[in-house]
Amino acid sequence: MNTDSFSSIMNYKFLAVLLMFFTTSCFLTGCEKSNQTNTSIRQAVKKYDKATILEGNVSNNEGPIKAGVIKVTDNKEQLVASTTLQNNSHYSIEIPASTVLPIVLTFYPDADTADAEHLITAVIHPTITRYDINPLTTAIAKKAKSMGGYNHANMVRAAEDTAAVPDANKTTEGFRGDPTTQYGGWH
């Protein structure tokens, strides 16, 4: 074999490898774009299959709140249910079957004053039934809403951004459970 034919074969192999690399890159880029499209598909609608009792405690920075009204609204701000606190900071409220999530539990100090400062918590999981309502849950819910709405990803990010997490718990070894409950979060 002479050097010219050897050089031609090497150039051909180099071009073949380059073409194969280019084709593979295009294919992988197409896969990435396909995956990106799939992640933007809306999640399944979550709702209560049967009537469900939600309960929890209402408090502010001074302690338990024992009087006021809790109103539950859906994503369209339509009233779903309501209850009144009477000499007890613990509430219990029945959410009707087929109620679509998310819903918001809003505490008002006075039933007639909707403009008064209120506390909220957002409900996004149909299997969780305990939701405290306090200034921290209010901050988390408001932050999640500003991030694009009440969904699991926004609620977790809002809880992590809002609650002070000790450095010891930010590592895998130091993690002791769900940060949203451990640090007074939304459930």
Determine the CATH superfamily of the largest domain.
Carboxypeptidase-like, regulatory domain
**Helix segment count?**
4
Domain unit count: 2
Strand content: 15-25%
Detail the poorly predicted runs: 31-41, 169-176
Mass-distribution shape: globular
Give me the side-by-side strand order of the main sheet: 5-4-7-8
Span from first to last CA?
A: 77 Å
String of helices and strands:
HEEEEEEEEHHH
The assigned CATH architecture of the largest domain is Sandwich
Q: What is the multimeric organization of the chains shown?
A: single chain
Can you tell me about this structure?
The protein has 187 residues and is an alpha+beta fold. The chain folds into 2 domains: 1-41; 52-182, Immunoglobulin-like. It is built from 4 helices and 8 strands. The protein has helices at residues 3-39, 135-146, 152-162, 179-182, and strands at residues 52-57, 59-60, 63-64, 67-73, 79-86, 90-95, 103-108, 119-123. The chain has a 4-stranded antiparallel beta sheet. It has a two-stranded antiparallel ribbon with strand order 1-6. Strand 2 and strand 3 (63-64) form a beta hairpin. Helix 2 packs across helix 3 (152-162). The N and C termini lie far apart (77 Å).
